[in-house]
């Protein structure tokens, strides 16, 4: 209207005034016209509608049968509908009805998982299916009415009578040995007229040699072959050439512009066959090629592939890499979901585990799962995730595992193969695409800056000459400096910042001179990475053109950030460093800055990168040189040298394939040169084996309890840690049968006196076990150690007697187990050791002699000096004799020499023997009672001693010891009991109670019952269903929800308090909290303490304090202010925690908030549900949730 020459026509109302009137007078809106708005439609109530339900799926359907020849309709029959009524809530079958679209990707905690591959019984086969199979087998007969002419063929084969059975193995040998003689042999060909056509003159003669095989025995033989443990993994020889590779794979699913290595070709051949492979190779060897081919195969077959990584950052990087190779790629992480319906999905292993437990429908179309960095299974915290996923994968999913070189690839592959019920092919290569050379660097400044000494050459051999030269160079520097000066202190130790700066500048000058940039300098401290980078303010490693490219790229990346975030100190400092070709990479760096550094490093624009060891994981980012600041690191408990696997992982970043002939690894000798043994073990030592980190978690128990056909015991049996025991079950079952047979053949003891001999055996066995266990701890007590001096009289168990007096001569503490040298009495020329003396029944026989008094030889009194263990000392008496123990021992040792054997004992020995004889003939001798003499209050010891007294009284009152043939009867009873004990032990090995984690499982199950997560029958209660929705810390979050701790709080306060669940850094500054937050912290710790006490009461070993202290509140103030809208630059002044750690904490917090929101939805708390949504929205802003550069 404004464009008209005279304005709007007078008949039209001006638009501006019309809009103004509309906005300023809401009372004129028609919604306030009650007559028009308030209308009521009468609704007739129909109570019967409440009784209506969805119609169940029909159990039967109609099948039309047609004549095979004419196609005419023959009849219509009613058959049972397979998989009728199966839904994602009730069935584990792949044929079940798909769930709603909203649950298609991640599934739902109310869904049941698909049936895991490798389990013996498949519940997806309903009874109707089994009945149909049985009926089909009854109709089939393999001994008559067999057709010989296939449909559409004129002739067929007649295999003769099927009534004869032959051994398959011998038959194959006969055929092989006679293959040359049977070139003209014939098969009886039948035409439609069934008249045989002779193919050879010696028809009958040759036909008699052809075996007829019983099909049933062939099938049984193949089934037995499957059970062999050696068949689960096959090591592929990659040294053999594959000249016919392109004949074997004529139409590859994917091609590369370079020639493949042998191990890659072998892997591709097995992938084409749909077989599982395990690739173990060094960093940068090209394992990703195998992953790419599996993805290409899935796209060729119109199926799906999932690529899993151990960390989220690696998932983002792989998403970018695969996005350039394959267009249809998606990403699933805790907070990001991109193209979730893609044929190739990148995700962390935890996400895949959640999808498997929640029955995601994506699993139906899944053909390949690629596990990258499988050696991460050794991680104590997260290694269990890999085992869970491998166990839960359905049978139709193929597996590709990529790992660094490990020594037990066959063992691990055997476990996976046995678990999934199919063979795993292991392809390993120790060949490095770029060989490594390892050096020691002793240079400082000036002339010494080029002091670099080769200690391991490219062939992997240690060079002693180079090591000795490094030692000499280091010693010469110590001699050159004046003692006591600053330079001397720097030479002996790490030195100050000036010394550190000079060293770094000298090293960089040396590397630039040798053209060995870029370099990655691994430093095992975030603070030291930052300090080292700040020392190089005068260093510029890039050209003007490179500096311009860096500036342009950096500005483009940070332009995504809010204005104030672009001026953060870390951002501006990083920009300054990058413009000089220097980068820093560790967990304290902002995620977007780490990605900028990674991308610039891949482009070759970062010449020097200070990084922690996390940079060495996953994505291929090689450098020309790798430098180790030190070879010692702190692992959370103390300082130690790098393990071979850790060193190899980081050193493997040296050497760029196609650019460098060798990679250079340099160790800085800031202090003394490391020991050659330490270097040899670290550089050339065996990498760490893959080991099971399986443990039973609350999440695992709850997720499996909601599934009727899966048990926690099934998961435990199939863990990697149980594989060795499970592989021996066949032999154990055979042993069990033999023991059953032996028990049936045991003779019955016929003696009226020895009616209680079984009870005597059990009591004596308990007494011996408890006595030996107690004596070892008793004799190690300081009070008892003071009494164990030479000359102390002891009551010992020696050979078949437990009542011998002995004199202590010395105590040998050099070995792991203390040994006591004693002098004791023996009969005649010395008691000959009998094989039966160490049997348990002979010790029991000795117990029966205790009530007869002390042992004294019945014939000529002799003596012996022997060594005994602590468990053989039965009592320590109060008697202390004055002896010359050294002379007694020397005299005894001298008389053991053949020519001095007949010499009489010396005076010291004779006096000791006489005194020992006198004491042995005494009526009694007083023994030390720790409870009375030393007033010990150890309740455990008091209980054991009381139990010993009770057992000893029972043994003394036994009537069987009065039997004249007690020794023979006890030996017979012992043999019988031993077999029965072995039978019980074997039965235990076959039971589920023998599983490594059985006790932990039952303890955690008791905790869940005590806290009302499950009932007495193991059925999930409301709490259990809520806990299933939690990603971590299931119990504490569920308890907070059910105790209404969060409902009364504001969204910012809820987010702040829940940060204690995701923040893990120790030694952070204490926050300033509001009274509401202080109260919330108290309530959380109170609930955590309650859970900790319940766990301890149910048998778990974790201390209550440790469980409570894992929830750290140091970041509560930061998160609270962030949720209230404070800029990131300002919240950095509230704590000493680095920026990257704060961002990581808040990102993980968002996942926890969404878990609590789901819990509120389940229990029907709309207020909490709304607050959790508001809290999640409040923290998701600005730099903390800036999109990854890899996903743009």
Description:
One of its GO terms (biological process) is nuclear-transcribed mRNA catabolic process, 3'-5' exonucleolytic nonsense-mediated decay. Keywords: ATP-binding, Cytoplasm, Helicase, Hydrolase, Nucleotide-binding, RNA-binding. This protein is an alpha/beta fold. Among the domains are: 201 residues, Rossmann fold (3-Layer(aba) Sandwich); 230 residues, Rossmann fold (3-Layer(aba) Sandwich), CATH 3.40.50; 204 residues, no CATH class; 165 residues, Sec63 N-terminal domain-like fold (Orthogonal Bundle). It is 41% helix and 13% strand. The protein has 44 helices and 28 strands. The protein has a nine-stranded mixed beta sheet with strand order 6-14-7-13-12-8-11-9-10. The chain starts with 14 loop residues before the first helix and ends in a 13-residue tail after the last helix.
